[in-house]
Design a protein that fits this description.
Blueprint: E1 2-7, E2 12-19, E3 26-34, H1 41-59, E4 63-67, H2 75-95, E5 99-102, H3 104-112, H4 119-129, H5 139-155
Parallel strand pairs: 1-4, 4-5
Antiparallel strand pairs: 1-2, 2-3
Length: 156
């Protein structure tokens, strides 16, 4: 099974394509889509959803996995991230890929065995579960990889 994991954001959106394999999952692709802070929000939204759709078409995943959005204290940011999520879900529907959502606790539990694991613990488990042969520079990329790994584990 091949999955695209996405950590949605409008400044930086983490994306990862993973394939199930034994003994370790394979990281096919990972990166961050970044948009300029000064660009109008609709342009940022179009850039992110367009690149996600391009990656879905290029890598032909069987599923899209994203973390379920939780609202923090900054509601404006949360609303814009929700809009990014909606655009990505629409892109997946256009490509014909089913979408799955997981709570942050479910992702952490699937990757590390503990639903309240910190980012460092999740990153070190990802290194144990996958052959990551590139430098991961941003947490958003790790988060996308983690949600992809979680989907592969849960889908089994």
């Amino acid at each position: 099974m091949r999955v695209i994991g996405i950590d949605p954001g409008y400044g930086r959106c983490g994306v990862a394509v993973l394939e199930s394999a034994r003994p370790r999952e394979i990281l096919v692709y990972s990166s961050c889509i970044e948009t300029p802070a000064r660009a109008p929000f609709p342009e940022r939204l179009a850039a992110i959803s367009g690149e996600c759709e391009r990656l879905m078409r290029e890598h032909s995943p069987e599923a899209l996995a994203m973390e379920r959005l939780y609202f923090n204290s900054n509601q404006k940011t949360a609303m814009q991230v929700a809009e990014v999520r909606g655009a990505i879900l629409a892109s997946a529907a256009r490509v014909g890929i089913p979408s799955f959502e997981y709570t942050p606790a479910a992702v952490k539990a699937a990757v590390s065995g503990y639903g309240r694991a910190n980012k460092r613990a999740v990153a070190s488990m990802l290194a144990a579960l996958l052959a990551i042969e590139k430098e991961i520079r941003h947490d958003d990329e790790y988060d996308a990889i983690a949600v992809g790994v979680a989907h592969l584990a849960i889908a089994r």
